[in-house]
């Protein structure tokens, strides 16, 4: 989800809530402790230089049980970040602490923002010696193809 999408959604919401893919919620008294632009310059294992830019939201579960972040307040934090830091309209990455700091993509289910698990991947599989994944075929389709092209006693086999 891009920053512009979050900005468009916030004025339509009464509350801001974040839900993990496992169904648990970030406690409603969370704080957004950071909004920023993260630029990652790197070289992949195939030698290609890459740049990724993301907008970073950091969520923190404070012991401030009376605190509730309202949509207008989050929108103001975003606008201030855009004004002072020159944040671009990029994909959002959310940092949230469980056992360690987790990084999540962001989606919306119509009511809640969803923290989607992220995974690592090789960006240059053709360059680093990773074997190509074998094509998966259904045996039922293979048998159908064989029977339609060659039948017993037809002389084709």
Number of helices: 3
In spatial order, strands of the major sheet run 1-6-5-4-3-2
Total strand segments: 6
- What's the structural domain tally? 1
Rg, Å, rounded: 24 Å
Order of helices and strands: HEEEHEEEH
Structural class by sheet pairing and helices? alpha/beta
The general outline is elongated
Distance between the termini: 55 Å
**Main beta sheet:** 6 strands, mixed
Q: Please, what is the average pLDDT? A: 87
Uncertain stretches: none
Helix content: 10-25%
Q: How much of the polypeptide forms β-strand, as a percent range? A: 25-35%
Pfam family, one: DUF6428
InterPro entries: DUF6428
Architecture overview:
- With 157 residues, the protein is α/β, with parallel strands linked by helices.
- The protein has one domain.
- Helix content is 21%, strand content 31%.
- It is built from three helices and six strands; from the N terminus they run H-E-E-E-H-E-E-E-H.
- The protein has helices at 3-9, 71-85, 139-149; strands at residues 18-20, 30-43, 49-61, 92-97, 101-108, 113-117.
- It has a six-stranded mixed β-sheet with strand order 1-6-5-4-3-2, covered by helices on one side.
- The N and C termini lie far apart (55 Å).
- The mean pLDDT is 87.
């Amino acid at each position: 989800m891009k920053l512009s999408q979050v900005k468009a959604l916030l004025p339509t919401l009464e509350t801001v809530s974040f839900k993990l893919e496992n169904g648990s919620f970030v406690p409603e008294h969370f704080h957004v402790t950071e909004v920023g632009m993260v630029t990652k310059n790197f070289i992949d294992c195939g030698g290609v230089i890459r740049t990724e830019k993301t907008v970073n939201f950091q969520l923190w579960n404070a012991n401030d049980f009376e605190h509730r972040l309202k949509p207008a307040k989050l929108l103001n934090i975003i606008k201030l970040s855009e004004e002072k830091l020159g944040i671009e309209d990029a994909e959002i990455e959310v940092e949230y602490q469980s056992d360690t700091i987790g990084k999540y993509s962001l989606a919306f289910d119509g009511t809640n923002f969803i923290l989607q698990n992220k995974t690592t991947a090789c960006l240059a599989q053709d360059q680093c010696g990773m074997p190509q994944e074998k094509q998966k075929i259904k045996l039922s389709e293979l048998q159908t193809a064989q029977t339609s092209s060659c039948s017993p006693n037809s002389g084709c086999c």
